[in-house]
Write a structure and sequence with these properties.
The structure holds 2 protein chains of 2 kinds. Chain A is of the alpha/beta class. Chain A is built from 18 helices and 21 strands. Chain A has 2 domains: about 10-120, 2-Layer Sandwich (Alpha-Beta Plaits); about 135-280 and about 295-370 and about 390-455 and about 490-545, Alpha-Beta Barrel (TIM Barrel). Chain B has one domain (about 5-50, about 150-380): Aminohydrolase, N-terminal nucleophile (Ntn) domain (Glutamine Phosphoribosylpyrophosphate, subunit 1, domain 1), CATH 3.60.20.10. The chains are: A alpha/beta, B alpha+beta. At the A-B interface, helix 5 and helix 13 of A face helix 5 and helix 9 of B. The complex binds iron/sulfur cluster (SF4) (2 copies). The site of one iron/sulfur cluster (SF4) has 16 residues of chain A, from strand 5.
């Protein structure tokens, strides 16, 4: 057999059928307005000339043949870096419903191309693990019936807040208060925190929208929501604004943006909600942050004190520190001192088997204000697929272990444990969060849920979109390009933030009321939890139900 | 639903009168058990010295009794009085009660060098040792209390029947305070220890309603590694331990108990004269916030009595009486039965902010509001 030389048949040649998303285009409806191609964030759509044969039925035998037609059509690129990401923006703008992406069940061929030029696949966004998460499967099964009538979520008063900051043992509190000694700062906050997403990762409009929404929750609705910045500093006007009190400033191993923050201290009108020192994150444990060059715009460059358009990788560790003990001594104490011991300072680590040792170290340090553990389902700005999909520790067991360890020492909630990683991954944000709280967390952080809920982020666990890292976010959420982020209206984001938190609060009451809890958050109330999996029940020390 | 009755009077009275009040409150109640605590004792056939510790419990077998004797001997206690209840065995449901114990001991001579705190600690450890011994031998020995001037009895059955079965109607024992609770544990297994009132170092409480915050509170108390914070066969036991923790370990005034179990809200604290202290206390004691619904009735070693509600106030309780004689009950008819000749218009049903305190002189009821200034100087 002779090979057909004119066909490019190399190991890396692809057809649209080999890509994760295939564009379905109906030429009969398409008016060739070109909107889809213009809006496509990855430039996969191209208008191309094509020629097709028009068979004609001719009865007389002397006149066989065809005629041809030349036309303009829309085609999908098969280049890997221009592959369709399934975001569906083309479908959103098409006036004639002529185009939409369809997920391809066959993806092996594409995986072969994942490491082109020796670079393993990277993405922004979320872990590719669709289906119900463990947290989704936990149910609240302790319902007050007769001896203790259930409460009315609509009418009774509920106290839904939690504490961020070190809580002294009562004896020690009374002693210090008597002696007039220092009492560690404690904040009363809403237990659902907008987790660390940096000003470089999010677009200015997204950031503004979140901040406006958070301020409204606090000042109008009395829901003390706080949000964390992530690495990379904070816009100077925010540092000098009264909104700073709703913001947890993050310092990470790259120290990006920290000189700005330190310089702003004398001009701050109020203290930040807390300082989070990032040692690790759920999406890429043991790896530093990475802001890819696409997103290092002029503004971001100025904020972080770096040149424009360069990759900004943070080292995987704080290079200046030798151990967690030293880190606690140096970083936590220094940060506390910078704000005159009025601001809770706490570390954020990745969910891992060493979480317990970090925790026990913190318990013995009087300045540590909390521990934030980010489990494997956490999202990120940019990470290698393998880190996001397969490195780290699921959050439920990790938090539970840490909490029970504290219980055994009689120190639970002295160091509040905050949990993140997959909270609201499938939309059940309150259920996920409350399950973690009843397992022992004092509160939870959520990232992608708030992006989806407040800004309509298109990303999913089945690797839809997830181009947050390259600054092409079709929604303008994670892009630094004004052409893109102007698509997002900050006011609308703010409104959605407020609506989201209002509904979380109502749902919290709907969980707490039947359990008969209203005066305090049911932290560690594991007798209210059940799961239909014996092994999980045993591991988490909760009830097995089926 | 539990029934609670408590009477405190300057003149000792028979516990049977309180059991009659329990009978008055019988409606809607299954009467499956009785717990009784007497304080300020007088015996018809023994001149009791109020300093001497009294052991209350049950030896279910002869062998258990022998072990009890041995343990007390070894600890250095001398038996001064062994009260024989006039037991009518046939009237008691459980058939394995060898002996109901009410014994007055003389403290070990070696304790004379110990401080009051140390003596109190030793008394608790001795009771716990007896309890542990019973548990190690198939629960054949229960030890409810070991404390001066306090007697406790617990049994399964209808309260009045148990009173008759133990001969409490004979007037041989009278006391200035009597706390009674009816109904065995409903949420967890039947266990004599699980019956109210709960006792630790002279502090005793009883409760109606279920404590929904039980598990986190229990976890925290257990973590204190304080030997007395054990048991928890009932979710209500933690109320006694929190009261003990607040008054004996934190050494805060009784009025603070309410602030610990049902703290004020932020808006309220900003207006409170000691808001700053109380807010810190709320944070530090956050794990001890009860969620109720509960009415908690308690007594302290100095014969102070008190009643508090949880913040939701979904359980009833009434207090009424006259100088020298007061009663608290979960149902109003219980108060009627205990002190019929009082001015009913002065009965009081506490709201969420109240602590009702009947001081040892029993002259008048103190109604203390959480919004009031606390009797504590460092916070002012
Ligand atoms: S779905 Fe998104 S990436 Fe795919 S063609 Fe449409 S706009 Fe482009
Ligand atoms: S919509 Fe934007 S933020 Fe969401 S996954 Fe796509 S690129 Fe990321």
């Amino acid at each position: 057999m002779v090979s057909v030389r004119s066909i490019a048949n190399t190991p890396s040649s692809l057809t649209p059928n080999d890509l994760p998303w295939i564009i379905e285009h109906r030429e009969d409806r398409c008016t060739l307005c070109g909107k889809c191609a213009a809006v496509c964030p990855v430039g996969t759509l191209k208008l191309a000339y094509m020629r097709k044969r028009m068979p004609q039925l001719v009865l007389s035998s002397s006149e066989r043949g065809s005629s041809y037609k030349t036309f303009v059509g829309i085609r999908q690129s098969t280049e890997v870096n221009k592959r369709c990401i399934g975001c569906g923006t083309c479908a959103m703008v098409c006036p004639n419903e002529a185009i939409h992406p369809v997920q391809n069940a066959e993806r092996d061929r594409f995986r072969f191309l994942n490491s082109q030029q020796g670079e393993p696949a990277k993405r922004g966004g979320r872990r590719n693990d669709p289906g119900a998460s463990l947290l989704d499967r936990i149910i609240f099964d302790r319902i007050s019936m007769l001896t203790d009538p259930a409460l009315d979520a609509g009418r009774h008063e509920f106290s839904c807040n939690t504490l961020l900051g070190r809580v002294l043992p009562p004896e020690e509190y009374v002693r210090r208060k008597l002696a007039g000694e220092w009492i560690p700062p404690v904040r009363e906050i809403f237990p659902f925190v907008i987790g660390s997403m940096s000003f470089g990762a999010l677009s200015p409009n997204m950031w503004l929208g979140l901040l406006q929404g958070v301020a409204y929750c606090n000042e109008v609705l009395g829901i003390p929501v706080v949000m964390a910045t992530g690495e990379g500093g904070c816009p100077p006007w925010v540092l000098r604004s009264p909104f700073l009190k709703y913001i947890i400033l993050q310092i990470a191993s790259g120290y990006f943006g920290w000189d700005e923050i330190i310089r702003a201290i004398p001009e701050m009108q109020c203290d930040p909600a807390a300082i989070e020192i990032k040692y690790g994150q759920g999406a890429k444990p043991g790896d530093g942050g990475l802001l890819m060059w696409f997103k290092v715009s002029k503004l971001i460059a100025r904020l972080r004190g770096v040149p424009e358009g360069v990759d900004l990788p943070s080292p995987p560790v704080h290079q200046t520190l030798y151990s967690i003990e030293e880190s606690v001594m140096k970083m936590i104490q220094t940060m506390s001192m910078a704000w005159n011991f009025r601001v809770p300072v706490y570390p954020k680590i990745s969910g891992s088997t060493s979480a317990k040792s970090v925790l026990n170290n913190l318990v013995r340090n009087p300045y540590a204000g909390a521990l934030m553990i980010d489990g494997i389902d956490g999202g990120t700005g940019a990470a290698y697929n393998i880190s996001m999909d397969a490195t780290g520790h699921p959050i439920a067991a990790n938090v539970r272990e840490c909490y029970l360890d504290l219980c055994a020492q009689g120190k639970q909630n002295e160091i509040p444990i905050f949990a993140a990683g997959g909270v609201g991954k499938n939309g059940n944000v309150t259920q996920n969060g409350m399950a973690l709280i009843m397992l022992g967390a004092s509160g939870v952080h959520m990232g992608k849920f708030i992006m989806q809920s407040a800004a309509g982020c298109l990303g999913t666990e089945s690797n839809r979109c997830n181009v947050c890292n390259i600054g092409l976010c079709p929604k303008g959420i994670t892009s630094q390009n004004p052409k893109l982020y102007r698509r997002l209206d900050p006011d609308q984001v703010a409104q959605r933030v407020v609506e989201t938190f209002m509904s979380i609060r109502t749902e919290m009451k709907k969980v707490m009321a039947p359990l008969g809890r209203s005066q305090s958050l049911p932290i560690g109330m594991s007798d209210a939890l059940g799961i239909n999996d014996k092994d999980v029940a045993e591991r988490l020390n909760i009830r097995y139900v089926c | 639903m539990c029934r609670l009755a408590m009477k405190t009077a300057s003149e000792p009275f028979s516990p049977f009168s309180v059991l009659q009040a329990m009978e008055a409150m019988q409606e809607g109640y299954d009467g499956s058990g009785l717990g009784l605590l007497l304080r300020g004792l007088k015996f018809a056939d023994y001149k009791y010295n109020a300093q001497d510790p009294i052991l209350s419990g049950i030896a279910h077998t002869e062998e258990a009794l022998a072990r009890l004797d041995h343990i007390m001997d070894k600890a250095g206690f001398t038996l001064k009085y062994d009260h024989e209840y006039d037991v009518k065995k046939a009237m008691i449901e459980a058939q394995d009660r060898h002996k109901y114990i009410l014994r007055v001991y003389k403290k070990p001579a070696a304790w004379s060098k110990l401080s009051t705190d140390q003596v109190e600690h030793e008394l608790m450890l001795t009771r716990l040792a007896l309890r542990a011994d019973g548990e190690a031998h198939g629960n054949d020995l229960t030890a409810f209390s070991l404390w001066p001037d306090v007697v406790m009895a617990k049994e399964v059955g209808w309260p009045l029947d148990i009173g008759l079965a133990l001969g409490l109607d004979s007037g041989r024992i009278t006391s200035r305070i009597c706390m009674a609770q009816g109904r065995q544990n409903t949420n967890y297994g039947i266990n004599l220890y699980a019956c109210h009132p709960f006792f630790i170092q002279g502090v005793a409480t009883m409760t109606n309603g279920e404590n929904t915050a039980f598990i986190p509170i229990k976890d925290w108390l257990t973590g204190r590694a304080y030997p007395g914070y054990i048991g928890y066969q009932s979710d209500s036991e933690v109320f006694a331990h929190i009261l003990h923790y607040v008054t004996k370990q934190l050494k805060l005034p009784l009025a603070t108990y309410k602030h610990v179990i049902t703290p004020l809200k932020n808006e309220e604290l900003t207006k409170h004269p000691q808001g700053d202290f109380l807010r810190g206390l709320r944070d530090a004691c956050r794990r001890l916030i009860i969620d109720g619904p509960n009415a908690v009735i308690g007594t302290l070693p100095d014969e102070t009595s008190m009643l508090v509600m949880d913040a939701k106030k979904m359980r009833p309780a009434t207090v009424g009486g006259k100088p020298g004689e007061w009663a608290i009950a979960s149902e109003m008819c219980g108060v009627d039965a205990m002190i019929p000749d009082r001015d009913r218009s002065k009965d009081f049903q506490p709201m969420r902010e109240h602590t009702v305190i009947i001081p040892p002189d029993r002259q008048e009821l103190q109604i203390w509001s959480q919004f009031d200034q606390l009797p504590i100087h460092q916070a002012a």
